[in-house]
Every structure is written in C-alpha cells, then in structure tokens.
Amino acid sequence: RTHRNIVPEVTSVIKISGAAELKEGMIEVGGQSSGTFGKSLAEGGGSSFNIAALGGYVFSENIEFRGALSYNKASGADGSGGLVAGADYLWPNRRGPWMPYAGGGIGVSFGQGSDGIGLIHGGVRYFFNDQLSASIEGKYQFGFSHIGDGTIEAGVTLSYYFDHF
Fold first, then answer.
1. What's the CA angle centered on 140, arms 94 and 130, to 5 degrees?
2. Cα(60)–Cα(70) distance, rounded to whole angstroms?
3. What is the pLDDT of residues 105-154, one digit of tens each?
4. 29-to-53, 58, 161 alpha-carbon distances in Å
5. pTM of the complete model beyond 0.85
6. What is the DSSP string of 38-73?
C-alpha cells in the first residue's frame, strides 16, 4: 500500500507598497539632502551640501505645487540659503510604486549676496505606502544674474503625504 503525503500548497501575497497615486488636495511635507561636485559649471572644482524643508499641494492628478526653504554650504565659503516656489508634472503609475516627475521653480537666494534663482529638476519617487515616499532627483540651479553659471546637483528626498485639513 502506497501512502502519499498531500501537502496543501500555501501561497501568500505580501504587498510591499501601494500604487503610486496621489489624490487632489493632498499635502506634502518632507526634507531633502543634495550635493554637488563643482562650485559651478563655469568655475569647476569644490563641492557643496544642501538641506531643504519641502512642502507641496497636489493640485490635480498630474500637477503638484511645491515650495522649499534651503540652506547650502559650499567648501571654503560661508553658508547661504534660498526660497523657491514651483510646480512638478507627475506621471502617475497605478500598477506600481514608482512615479516619475519633472518640474521647475523660481525664487531668491540670500546670504552671500541675494539673487533671483531658477531651478529645473526631474526624478522618480518610490511610494512605500499611500503616504510615505522617497525620491532621487537631479537638478540644475542657477542665479538669474549668471544663468549659464549654475550647479548640477543630485538629491534624495523623504516625503509624507496626508489628506488636506
């Protein structure tokens, strides 16, 4: 007589993260750290470190208005700051946790002389769940008095999204 052990097949689904979807009216709070290798495209050499507090408002499925208050410390120089407001275009991904984006903004720098500043950036966000995301981005930041003399930076952001009040 032959005995067969019948072991039921057990399958489980572990949901690591939700789909990358933001709803109209959500508010973002977060922080960013970025760095550059080179004082500017014209000068070359040196490096800098930047930290920023971020805030945003999801206007629609594809548009988020964002603002940042930052502090920058370049090697061999005093620290400076900046305040930038802008917008991002979002490419929602309902099947996975990744969301690409691109955007820009304008603002003012303060510290080592004030100047109007412009910012162009793009990156990708990874959503751990419906509210928490991390992103990596590249950006080009320049002063309006020297548009061709900007810096190229790489940054990492951690953000939390919540429904509006």
1. 25
2. 26
3. 999 988 776 789 999 999 999 999 989 999 999 999 888 886 667 788 89
4. 8, 12, 7
5. no
6. SS-TTT---EEEEEEEEEEEE-SSSEEEEEEEEEEE
